Amino acid sequence: MNDDEKFFEEKMRDYQAPRCPEELVDRIMARVDAEPQAEPQPKWWTLFRLRHALVPAAALAVVLFVLLRLSPQPPSTPLPEIENPQVSIAPPETTSTPCELDLQEILRRLGAKDRAQLAYDDTTLCEAAEDVRMALNLMGKAMHSTERVLRNETRRRVADTVRMGLEASSVSPAPAAANPGNGG
Amino acid sequence: MKMDRPAFNRLLLEQKDAVYGLAVHLLDSREEAQDVVQDVFLKLWRKGGAVEVQSRTAWLLRVCRNACLDRLRRRKVRRHHRADPSQIKLGVGSPRELDGDSGRELSFDLSDEGAGAQQVEDRSEVRRIVAAMQRLSEPQRSIIMMRELQGFSYEEIASTTELSLSAVKVSLHRARKKVRRMFEEAKEVRA
Question: Does the beta carbon of A43 lie under 8 angstroms from any beta carbon of chain B?
């Protein structure tokens, strides 16, 4: 106890705090009897009951279940095998879309106009492909013909050359035989 | 839980002196203190069971103190409007002496009648100590009055003033020093 505390203890030893007069108590109780007491307002958290939350929770669960069933599931990709645990695993960089849809799904999502346009494009493409195939066929036949012509021509030229060679070889001893005196 | 009449009556009888004493000390006026005490208890009754049973005493003291501080503020504003600046001697006497309110009374039952000279001197000292307490600013005034005049615990003072326990102890320590210094200075002047 420090000096200040001792000082107050000594000085205030005989001090008596004022007492509430009895007539004030009577007056207050008379007012209390005259005034009805207000009903205590319930706190908002006391209004909450578990059973009140069951119906919304069940409805929410059903909605979530339906949504999950309707939403397309992304194809599951196998996890890369970890050969070296020291190497940090990062997702592989890819330029493809994360979710691939099949052709039927795409067609289903297209509108009627788009589907017609796509069918028209498809037909046109098939016709063009047919034309290209026919052209290639013709080119092949032409090449065959050309090859055959060239082969025949080559054969003919070779035959001509051989014949001319044979003719030349058969002709060249004749002058020597015709002019024997020129040789000796 | 709704508070019934017997429970309210019991609480009133238990706490009336503490609430009334706090109001008298802060306001330095018995009439005003009675009005405040009546208002505070009726407010509790009207709130019904909204105030938790275990915190009703702290609630009463807190509401009483706030009501007293409101009245003191209004009184100060009225005094400010009425005051003649030439009659105010700054730094002399208690605020009660400055405001010229003759209806005021020092806040304790100290009758000099039939008392010996020593008793009269002691009571005069107590009056001066209480007057010095009333010159303090809030919350030191409330804290030292609740502690030294009414004997409240630190916890009760902390819940009433809405301060921490350490803040109450620090304020009380400073208030004691100030009051003692003022008291001794006044004593020297009288001597």
Answer: no
